[in-house]
């Protein structure tokens, strides 16, 4: 965090850095995108990504992410949250090579994680980046309860159509499914189009 930003936060606590939560279904690429943002601006890592769903089981936060944009700079904290799903079936982990005990443990951790994601949404975040996998059905990936809390709390939201580097990606389908939201197509893996995300972060959360 820059000296001026710190001084401003000290003198004007209301202008304390925004806390942005990355939300979305398991495997949408939240942790990969959080790592991309944190590496671009603070040279830190947020967490481990994995092709096995429900890898993130605790909210993990990076503070002092100072993002430069045309008008100046904005400092935010980024919270990578556990994937939110309506149900967690431990048998789904067998295809990833987990045995019964490991699958049960991962499912328990995933369920706890969903509770933590919701708590953080209610108590800690001031803005949301909702991350969808643009290779899948957009509507099926959105959790109505989560979106309801976002709307009830009046939180600003940016919808990310992630994984646009993938051959099966269809970012237009995400924009068509959610015409009332700002949709930013990106790849957290390759960094493609992240400048547009940084502009959206500055405009919506700055
Ligand atoms: N092609 C492609 N793959 C991606 C991208 N982002 C993430 N992935 C892959 O998608 C899988 C899931 O990534 P994560 O970042 O762990 O996803 P997550 O949303 O944090 O998942 P949970 O923690 O389980 O909720 C991993 O295999 C990543 O390498 C992307 O932009 N493009
Ligand atoms: Mg994760």
From TrEMBL:
Domain G: 20-163
GO terms assigned for molecular function: GTP binding
Residue intervals passing through the bilayer: none
SUPFAM superfamilies, A to Z: P-loop containing nucleoside triphosphate hydrolases (SSF52540)
InterPro entries in alphabetical order: GTP-bd, P-loop_NTPase
Source species, domain of life: Archaea
Pfam annotation, one family: MMR_HSR1
UniProt protein name: GTP-binding protein
The species this protein was found in: Salinigranum rubrum
């Amino acid at each position: 965090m820059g000296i001026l930003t710190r001084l401003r936060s000290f003198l004007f606590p209301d202008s304390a850095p925004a806390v942005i939560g990355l939300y979305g279904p398991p495997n949408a690429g939240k942790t990969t995108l959080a790592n991309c943002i944190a590496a671009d601006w603070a040279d830190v890592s947020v967490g481990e990504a994995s092709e096995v769903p429900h890898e993130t089981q605790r909210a993990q936060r990076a503070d002092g992410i100072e993002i430069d944009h045309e008008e100046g700079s904005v400092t935010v904290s980024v919270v990578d949250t556990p994937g939110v799903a309506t149900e967690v079936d431990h048998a789904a982990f067998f295809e990833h090579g987990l045995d019964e005990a490991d699958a049960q443990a991962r499912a328990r951790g995933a369920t706890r994680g969903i509770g933590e994601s919701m708590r953080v949404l209610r108590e800690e975040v001031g803005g949301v980046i909702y991350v969808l996998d643009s290779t899948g059905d957009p509507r099926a990936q959105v959790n109505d309860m989560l979106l309801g809390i976002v709307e009830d709390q009046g939180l600003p939201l940016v919808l990310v159509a992630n994984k646009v580097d993938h051959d099966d990606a269809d970012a237009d389908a995400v924009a068509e499914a959610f015409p009332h939201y700002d949709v930013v197509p990106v790849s957290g893996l390759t960094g493609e189009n992240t400048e547009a995300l940084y502009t959206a972060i500055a405009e919506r959360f700055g």
